[in-house]
Fold this protein.
Amino acid sequence: MKIGILSQFPDLYSIRRLVAACESRGHEVVVINPINCYMNINSVKPSIHLEGEELSGFDAIIPRIHASVTFYGCAVVRQFEMMGVYAANDSISIARSRDKLRALQLLSRKGIGMPVTGFASKPDDIGDLIAMVGGAPLVIKLLEGTQGIGVVLAETKKAATSVIEAFLGLKANILVQEYIRESNGSDIRCFVVGDKVVAAMKRQGPEGDFRSNLHLGGSAEKVRITPLERKTAVAAVKAMGLVLAGVDILRSSRGPLVLEVNSAPGIEGIEATTGIQLAEPIVEYIEKMVAARKANSPIIA
Ligand code: ADP
């Protein structure tokens, strides 16, 4: 097969591992920077160009679109889809999972557990918004935040009100969420390929921080997840329409609660923590999907 990996960062561990896995399984692989691609959108033969050349002959792409370029990156993925190339995470599903409000709405529609969550842009009654999610302590999140930045724990109603007012004063969209105290500053990252959780790790925030993000100094260990956690992670990925994803779950007294579904999960931390190779199952999965598509496609004489 000829496989394209869409990423701006060819030197990242995750990308190097995917390249190595494609090559070790006998595939041709090209890392394509989606931002540099330009496209010809027409009804006869849609095409994608890069550095003066048309990109052609691809069987599959693995989109690893950075959050900062979701809009254009998804357009490039869509163009590959229009050209009949299999995308291991299609453009609609990536866009869905990147929109935190839409993602949580989709999860709730499927009955998947999540912390009680309120959204607000310009609430006229902050007190009611706070009461709606069960009062303080509560977690306030900037919609545009990633890696734990812009995630604040407000211990009291007074603190919550001032943080909400401050964020809204900056014209930021926010999400207000029930605080899951039992998770104790930890969460579970499940790495899903197709309909299987292939690896899972528990991340623990540094002493005194309720956020478990590794970028903020957290630590990680391999964890055995329960059948319900497994089922929840796979259902969350399906609800987005994704096929490769990292699902972040909080362990609560009422069962697993999904925080986020990440369409381009990092491979380095979870491979190092669990000792499980993840790039190879991804490529194997793509081989199966491309073969199944070929088997189903009508033969043109
Ligand atoms: P980001 O996408 O920026 O990483 P998250 O929503 O995943 O933001 O939050 C960062 C971390 O904060 C989580 O990994 C988790 O450890 C903690 N956290 C987030 N929301 C809650 C919550 N409602 N209750 C308890 N802990 C939370």
